Structure formats: structure tokens, C-alpha cells
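Consider the following assembly input.
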Amino acid sequence: MSLKSAYMGAWLKGEGPESDIVVSSRLRLARNLEGFKFKGRMGEDEELLLEAHLREKVVDSTFGDNMCYLSLNELDDLDRLLLVESHLISLEHFNGDGRRGVAYDQSGSVSIMINEEDHLRIQVLAPGLALREQLHRINAIDDTLAEQVPYSFNTDFGFLTTCPTNVGTGLRVSVMLHLPALALSKHIQKVFNAVEKVNLAVRGFFGEGSQALGDFYQISNQVTLGVSQEEALLELDKVLPRIIEYERDVRQALLDDERKVLEDKVFRAMAILQNARSIPTEEAMVHLSFLRMGIFLQMVDDVSIDAVNKLFLIIQPGHLQSLVGSELLPEDRDVERASIIRKELQDD
Amino acid sequence: MSLKSAYMGAWLKGEGPESDIVVSSRLRLARNLEGFKFKGRMGEDEELLLEAHLREKVVDSTFGDNMCYLSLNELDDLDRLLLVESHLISLEHFNGDGRRGVAYDQSGSVSIMINEEDHLRIQVLAPGLALREQLHRINAIDDTLAEQVPYSFNTDFGFLTTCPTNVGTGLRVSVMLHLPALALSKHIQKVFNAVEKVNLAVRGFFGEGSQALGDFYQISNQVTLGVSQEEALLELDKVLPRIIEYERDVRQALLDDERKVLEDKVFRAMAILQNARSIPTEEAMVHLSFLRMGIFLQMVDDVSIDAVNKLFLIIQPGHLQSLVGSELLPEDRDVERASIIRKELQDD
């Protein structure tokens, strides 16, 4: 499998429940192996040993050809960037040091980071709102891996992790929400306040330490200690339907009361995407965001949501340069980006 | 003749020498009548008398049906705004008080303001660079009027005017230049500096006291005392060809070196104009400016320069509301403006 095909992430298909607002669901488990020091305390030799052990004895023997393994130390910056943009590795894993790698499946919906902050970070990604199915899925993977290696586990605390905020279940549940109407109508801060009041976190497009781009916000649980997996899901269950309904209500209110304002945003976005000869990532994301909303509001019918979701990914600097096949200066990337977008939106 | 037809100003035809850069040429003469006090020193009765005198004995008897006369005191704000936007009256005349009026011909290329700052302000407007023909034309009108009424004239100073800056010839010569490439490449300030060094003035789209909009700049002479009409023209003759060449050179340099940047500006402008559902005047002017340049650079071939020039006029608040037939709130004007622009650019 070539690295490039990673961009066809199944989680970006624009399908799944509530997909007008919930782009994707993501769950991850932090796990560490008994018999190895925590990350940061290992020497280089031990890191090498751990990577080899996890790769060959655990991942390869468990998943066989279904998983592709990449050692991050052998990749150049561009390839590692591709993995971040595909949400297969974290920003921390991208920027990290030491021996580390990632295993992921063909569809880009499962990834296992090795030697990120913890020895293992197991992640599943799916389009739309699908927390319970994905919890079953990630637990199945976790169970399979646990048969191969003994996890570092304490009967009082639960799973032990490098950072205390992950001790317990080691589970983080996140959803990526698309909230353009709440952002446009300046109601978004109310959502943030409500979310943070119940101990959930709001983050940007690429998770921890990233910016919100194009009105995409990631909401996730914070507490892993003293709560069960089910309780963590319930925390999100309480809040998510209200945010989804809020966004839908504001979209409808804008349609009813300020249709021209909304149409203006959507048609300008479409026009600029179809005609710009140079466009930076951030600007493209903003326009794609309005176009995405326009499709769900049936203002635009000649562009598919698949095309838009695909663009969100392939216009990122890593995917873009990978598509072109060479490293480019930022101004040349902007020109290529505009060209790729025009082509994609014409083919539809 | 209805007031509305004023917007088909012949000076906006996009014809004439150097019309890629010189939108229009404008000359005006400031004249006062012997036997009447200067404006501001007249009582209301005398103003009424002067207006009636100038209208009936001078304008009507001289030009007959070729000129339409409007008393500004009888017009509402919207109609007076139409006259400003058509460049038939000045901002000062629009905002002024006292009895005052304007006579103008069917094509909008001659106007005679009565009781503006001076008793008479004679103006001629033409598309492109046409200073000498227009000087002959305005002098012919001036001579004809002088046969009807004795002008206030001093053999030492020349024509006497309310403001000392107009004493002498009473002539102001202006050209409206379209300088998008110089503005885009940040060279425009050099032009301003050079122009001001030779005692010429740079002003905005509606002349004195107005802002530059869409990269249109009006350049005019300042000195009327101790210089002949010919010398005033020569001042502009020295500078204009260099500015025109400078703008053309920068356009070509941008085409050669940064074609994508230029195309991006032009195609985005066109796309937004053809798709926006709401657009303020200032933004529309900016996009029309790039579209105008794009037409002259043969990047756009399905829009005529006539259509663009017409849009510059009819998107102004006065013309817009006149077209719609009612006064509108600013946000409703923005929606109507977008609609008018879309229609005009589709019909082409």
C-alpha cells in the first residue's frame, strides 16, 4: 500500500448518523506494556527493543497484512505530515523524538501509534456519530492486543499511563463537529462555555494543540479516572444532541430570516473555490466549510459531499505536495491548491 | 427627459484615447456675474433673483431644449444623489444650502451648476484622455454665456472667484485614472508623491473630499492664477503620459512575473460579482476594478468594458434606489446591488 492512499480515509466519507453536523467519531485508548519503562524514561536501546517487539510480536502477528506499519524515524517530514493530515498520527507523534511508528489499516479507520506518549495509542475513526459501535470495535482490538502482551494495570486505578490525565480507562472519545451556523451567528462561544462546564474539551481540526479551521471543532471527554467507559460516553451523549440541534436550529433560523446572507456566504464560497488561481489552506477551509453547509441545506446540488470532504484532506500541505509529487514553496502550494480545487469541483 | 437617464453618461462609455487607464477627462470653469455679490454674501432674495436670471436669461435662452434644468431645492435627497453619482454636480453642491440648480445636457457631458461656490460652474466631461478638445468645447460654451451676461473680471488677476484658489483662469482640469496595478504592487504612493511635487492634486472617485474607490484616482491642476489655460494643460501633459506608461509597465510586469497572482485577482473578482447575493458598494467597486483591468489585459473576454463602466455608476446608492424605484435600507441595497450586478454580467 502506498502512503498516498491514506488520504482516502473512510472516516471522511460524509456518511453516518448526523453527518450534516458530525463529521467523524474518534476513540483512542492509551496503553503501556508491563516490563518496559514509560516513554521518556527509556534509553534508546530499550525504545528500539520496544518498537520491534510491538511491531513484530503484536501488530504484525495479530493483524497480518491487514495493517501497514511505518517507522516514523524512516519517514521524511512530508510523509509524516501526510499521516497527521489523515488523522492517523497525532501532532505530538509527528513532532516527537525517539524510536516510534504507526500501524494503520487500508481504510485509514484504525491506527496504532507505537511510542507516542504511551507505548500504545490505539485509535478508531468513523464517519458521522458512531460512538457505541466504535467503542465495541476499539475494545475488540484492545482485547486482541492484550492477549499478546501484558498491559500495565493497577486494580485501584485501572490502566497506567505516562500522563496522569489518561490513567483509568485510558479512553478518549472525540467527535469532530461542523458548526458553521453557530460560528456565523456568534453563538459558538455559548457552546464552548456549556461544553467546558461539564468537563469536556473543545479543540481544533487536528486535535490537541491545533486551531479551529473552517468551523470544525473537536469535542472530547477529559476524565478517565474513576469513570467507566460507558460513563465517558454518557458525558458526550448528554451534550452532543443539544449541540447538533442548536446548530440545526440556527441553520433553519438563518434560512428563514436571513436567507440572502446565508446564500451569499455559500455562493461566494463556491465561486471563489471554482475560480481562485491561488488560495491558502486556511481560506480554502473557510470556503469549503460554507460549501459543505450549502450542500446539506440543498442550496448547492451539483457538488457532492464526498468531493468536499475529500478536498478538506487533499488541500492540506502534505497531501497537496504528495499529489504533486514534489516539495513546493508556500506560494506555489497556493497555486496548486487552487488548481486541484477547481478540477475537483468541475469534475462533479 | 427623466432624471434616471442621467446615468447613461457619455463620459462613461469606456472609449477615447488611453481608455485602458484614463476613464474620463473633466474640465470646469468658475465664473461670477458682475452686479451680484459672491455666494455666501447674497441674501435669499438676491439668490432667488440670480438663479432665475441665470436659468431663464442665460441657460434656457442659450441652449434651449438641449439642456435640462433642475432646481436643487426642489429635489429630494435621492435625486440630488443621482446627480452627484453622475458627476453632474459636486459634493459641495449636493450638501450646499441656498437657492441653487444645475443645467445639463442629455448625454451628461455638459453641466452648468448655478450658485455652487461660484455663480457659475461650467463643466464638460468626456471619456478617455481628451483635454484639448474639451478645452475648446468648454471655451465655446463659456464664450456663448459671456455674450449673455457680464462676468466679474479684473485685468490684473483675471476672472474673480469666491475662493482665491480659483482666481485667474478659473479652470480646473482633471482626469480620472484607473491604476489597479500600481495599487496592487504598492507603487501608487510614488505616483502621489511625484504628482504633488509638481503642484497637482490627487483626489478620490467623486472629486474633492471623496475617497479613492476601486483604484480610481482623480488628478487635477491646482494653480489658476498667473498661468494660462494652455500652461495648466501642459502641467498635466508632463505628468500623465508617465503615469499611464508606469501603470502599463507594471501591468505587463505582473503578467510576466506574477500572472497567477493577477489571474487570481481577476477571476475571483468576476466570480464574486457573478455569485454574491449581497455586496456593499465599496467591495463591488474593488472587484469591478480588477474586472476592468482583466478585460483590458484580455483575461476576460465575455464581459464588455461598457457593462463594467455602467455598473460603476448604477451600483451607487442613488442610482440603485432609483432603478429599484424606492428607498432601501443599506442591507437591502446590498442585496439589490448583488442582484443587479449578477444580471448585468449574465446578459453579456
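The radius of gyration of chain B is 21 Å. Ask yourself how this observation constrains the way the partners meet.
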